[in-house]
Structure formats: C-alpha cells, structure tokens
Specification:
single chain, Rossmann fold, 2 domains, 6-stranded mixed β-sheet, 4-stranded parallel β-sheet
Length: about 325
C-alpha cells in the first residue's frame, strides 16, 4: 500500500467546510435504559441517519470535492463491502462524475442495491483483500479513474474526522469516545480531531473477535496481515491500514474485541431502546461498552453508530 499521510486537524476543519453543503449534521440520542445497563452516560452519534445511511459519506464526499477539475473528470474508483461504495457513488453524483465500485462476493444485498441506485458501476471480485485491491488497481489502469481508498486515504480520514468535531460540539464535557474499527479510517480521523480539541479524552475502538487484526497489530507492534475475517460484521472485515494503525498507536486508542453474539445482542438492544435501525457493525461499539463496563463506569461517553444499511430479509437473529 502506498504511504498515505495522516490528516492534520486543519485538514479535518477544511473537510467540515467542504462537505457542509452535502452531508447531514446527525443527531445525538440518549437512552435511560442503556445508561442503566452500561453504568455510564451514553451519547449515541447517529451516523446511521447520515446521507447514504452511514458515516462513510463524509469521507467520500470530502475526497470527491477535493479533486481538481481534471482529476474529477476521469471519475473515481474504490473497493468496498457496501457502505463506502454507496457513499462514493452518492458523492460522485453530487459532482456529476463516474464512480466504479469493486465489491466482494457475499456483500450485503441491500448495500449493493444502494450502490447501483446511486449510479455507480459495480465490478465483482473474490471475497479477499488481495482480490479487492488487484481488481481496483486494474480498473485504475484501464479507466484512468482516481482511487478513493475506503480508509487509507488522507481526505477520506479527514472527512470521517468531522464526526469528532460535531460530536464534541454537541455534547459538553465528553470523557470518552467509542467507534468501531475495521480499516481504521473512522477511528483515525476521530482520534485526530478529538485529541486536537480535548487532549485528555480517552479513546476506544470496538473490533470483532473474528477480525481482530487491529488489536493484534497494536499488541505485536507491527501490522498483522494474515487474519482471515470470520464475523457477521461485514463492514469491519477489512484489514487496518498502515497509516490508520499509526493513528491508533499515536493516540493510544484502546481496542476492545467483541464476539458476534455480543454484537448481535447489542444490535437488538439498540433497535429496542433507541428505535433505530443499525447494522451489526455499528453495534460493536455498544457491545464493547457492555463487555468492559469497568472502563466506562460513571463516564460521559460518545458512541458512534456508524450505519443503518441492513438487509431486512437476513437479520442476524
């Protein structure tokens, strides 16, 4: 993977201004019942209500609108299990340019349908990281389109970091933030933004036990690339990116791994108590809080709900 620079706080502020005409300021919701279960004061940042149904629109929109005219005219390309592909397709449409999305076999049907509705061209590949990257590289060569990587991209990370800016402006005196972590674009962007504003803020990331490469990488001190994902959390199967891992290390992000059973239970609780449709990857954040209650006890915690693109015909329960 080509070396990618981490965004500065100034770039995240620029991203906030750039995406403002297109992205939604998502609400923060509360639940007394979930507070009681967690033993903490939870503030849920509802990115499942973001345009396209996921936080990914922020990063994709920032990347698309940061392109100069000549580059934008060539179109954009990415690989995605669903939400980033949909986000890039929607962002490309706001600028009137072509989007190509490489999707692995087995991706959630509702997400693929959303990508097609947004006007992107779908390209199938085997369900491996190597196949995704090889197919994407071939498309870049064949079409001349600009690669917008789903997480190891400076402008994408900057766009995702705008969640941190918003959340800290919406909730006073937060003491901790929890995000899911897959490729790490969200966790990296939020960490940079949050610590620029509140250096003492405690940062946590929730990762599926069946795709725990980020946790293993931090423990080993180098990026682990031999993890074969085995999790229901389709949005968190990607290996953590190198720059993203560096951000997690630099900002001392504490990773909590959770089982699929714990995550599905948390997903049901979110549907039941917040009355929100959230996908299983989103629920890892609440699952981590409930699993490690002692780390959050009595604290005011921001919880990022990353997406709500669920195949209602294939619910995990």
């Amino acid at each position: 993977m080509t070396t990618v620079a981490l965004p500065t706080f100034a770039r995240i502020q620029d991203a906030a201004a750039r995406i403002a005409p297109h992205a939604r300021v998502t609400p923060v919701m509360r639940s007394d019942a979930l507070d009681a279960l967690a033993g903490a004061e939870l503030h849920f940042k509802c990115e499942n209500l973001q345009r396209g149904g996921a936080f990914k629109f922020r990063g994709a929109c920032n990347a698309v609108w940061a392109l100069d005219e000549a580059s934008a005219a060539r179109g954009v390309v990415t690989h995605s299990s669903g939400n980033h592909g949909n986000a890039l397709a929607l962002a490309a449409a706001t600028r009137g340019i072509r989007a190509h999305v490489v999707v692995p076999e087995g991706a959630v049907r509702a997400k693929l349908q959303a990508i097609e509705r947004a006007g992107a061209l779908l390209h199938r590949c085997a369900p491996t990281q190597a196949a995704r990257e090889a197919t994407t590289a071939q498309l870049v060569q064949d079409t001349g389109a600009v690669l917008v990587h789903p997480y190891a991209d400076t402008q994408v990370m900057a766009g995702q970091g705008t969640i941190g800016l918003e959340l800290l402006s919406q909730v006073a005196q937060l003491e901790a933030i929890v995000t899911p972590v897959g490729g790490g674009g969200l966790a990296a962007g939020v960490a940079i933004a949050a610590h620029a504003l509140r250096p003492g803020l405690v940062l946590h990331a929730a990762e599926p036990a069946g795709a725990d490469d980020a946790a293993r990488s931090l423990a080993r001190g180098e990026r682990v690339t031999d993890v074969v994902p085995d999790t229901l959390c389709d949005g968190l199967r990607a290996l953590v990116g190198e720059p993203n891992l560096e951000a997690l290390r630099t900002h001392r992000v504490d990773i909590i791994t959770v089982s699929d059973a714990e995550t599905v239970a948390a997903m049901r609780l979110l549907w039941q108590e917040l009355k929100l449709v959230v996908e299983v990857s989103s629920a890892t954040a609440l699952a981590a809080i409930l699993k490690a209650r002692e780390r959050f006890a009595g604290r005011r915690v921001g919880v990022v709900l990353t997406g709500g693109n669920v195949d209602l015909d294939a619910l995990p329960w």
